[in-house]
Write a structure and sequence with these properties.
The complex is a heterodimer of chains A (about 150) and B (about 210). Chain A has about 150 residues and is an all-alpha fold. Chain A is built from five helices and no strands. Chain A has one domain. The N and C termini of chain A lie far apart (about 50 Å). Chain B contains eight helices and five strands. Chain B has a five-stranded parallel sheet with strand order 1-5-4-2-3. The two termini of chain B are about 30 Å apart. Classes of the chains: A mainly alpha (about 150), B alpha/beta (about 210).
Chain lengths: ~150, ~210
């Protein structure tokens, strides 16, 4: 298996993992946006008037960017958005750990067992970041243009 | 507020990178679509206002009322410290077992919030039914001690439940008394069940609100 095939296979795996996880996480949040808005408030990092807006926009971004990565339509742009979100989540999680706050991250709605903030969550997000990079890396397929017909003589 | 600046800086960095690799238009498209659909969702969702209610001063950022209709009352470090040694008062440590062993409030019972529902399914904790419980966690949002307080009250282990304001961080900062080590043997046992609590073989059904909080 040559290098480009390895990259392509890793890309597909990354697309499935990153896209699937974010679409699933976004959908769970949208099922109970009020609870997610409360989770955002618990981070004590954002002004209260942004909580509800963020609780609606962030899951939408996760779903749309996740779908972009999954389907391949605007894949790299989707991966870029997912990567930015993940890096931002990582920053927030680290700030929570440093400040010693006990809370659930709200990453998967109210499934608290999967969402307790701590070092395992940092590792999980770093793993997601690897999947996102793998999803981003393969080059976009180049569409072949139809050969121009020779000028009529 | 510094995470906001961090996110703003990351956004600028991302857009800059996107511009360099020619992705600016596509990334803007995804972000714009997210904003538009998010705002539309917010406008159409009946249970979500445009702007959240401002948090109550001194609270953990939780809403004024929980799903049970009552928010767990707070108690300051000074007030709680005055209750040390009172046999009708039980301190319940919602932090992890390791944190408890490292240091805890004298006489406190360890009941990690992450596993509290499971522990209460099979055993009770030594609390006088008419006594008072003060729960505490690491501090900050004190979401775990709030959850534990609601859980204890929901299971009718004790009706007088309070959350220690500021949690362990505030207790330690006030240089209040602490001890280290494991719980005394047998401090949590079936024999210590309150007389009016359900038997371990017939555990209370948790309320939907508790299940939702995990």
């Amino acid at each position: 298996m040559n290098e480009s095939r390895v990259l392509l296979a890793a890309g597909w795996l990354g697309r499935l993992v990153a896209g699937g996880v974010f679409v699933f996480a976004g959908a769970l949040k949208l099922l109970d946006p009020a609870a997610f808005a409360q989770d955002i408030g618990n981070y004590q990092a954002f002004p209260w008037w942004t909580w509800n807006l963020a609780a609606a926009v962030v899951p939408m971004a996760e779903i749309l960017a996740g779908l972009a990565v999954l389907t391949g339509f605007k894949r790299r742009a989707g991966a870029l958005v997912l990567g930015s979100l993940t890096v931002a989540f990582l920053g927030l999680i680290l700030s929570v750990i440093v400040r010693g706050i006990d809370l659930n991250c709200g990453c998967f709605g109210e499934a608290a067992e999967a969402s307790a903030v701590g070092w395992p969550l940092v590792v999980r997000d770093l793993g997601l970041l690897v999947a996102i990079v793998a999803a981003y890396l393969p080059a976009e397929p180049v569409r072949e243009r139809p050969a121009a017909s020779p000028p009529a003589s | 507020m510094y995470p906001l600046f961090l996110i703003a800086a990351l956004t600028v960095l991302t857009l800059g990178l996107a511009h360099r690799v020619g992705l600016l238009r596509d990334a803007t498209l995804v972000i714009g679509a997210s904003l538009l659909s998010g705002v539309t969702f917010l406008a159409l969702h009946p249970g979500l206002a445009w702007v959240a209610e401002p948090p109550i001063e001194g609270s953990c950022g939780l809403e004024g009322e929980d799903e049970l209709g009552i928010r767990v009352e707070r108690i300051s470090v000074d007030e709680a410290q005055a209750l040390l040694g009172d046999e009708s008062v039980t301190f319940v440590d919602a932090r992890s077992g390791d944190d408890y062993v490292a240091a805890h409030i004298p006489g406190a019972v360890s009941l990690p919030a992450s596993d509290a529902a499971g522990i209460l399914e099979i055993q009770s904790i030594p609390i006088l039914p008419d006594g008072q419980v003060i729960t505490y966690c690491n501090g900050g949002a004190c979401e775990q001690s709030e959850y534990l307080g609601l859980l204890l009250r929901d299971r009718e282990v004790c009706k007088q439940v309070k959350v220690l304001e500021g949690g362990w961080a505030a207790w330690a900062a006030a240089e209040a008394p602490t001890v280290a080590g494991e719980e005394p043997e047998g401090s949590i046992s079936f024999e210590s069940l309150p007389s009016d609590s359900p038997s371990p073989s017939e555990p209370c059904e948790p309320s939907p609100s508790m299940e939702a909080r995990g």
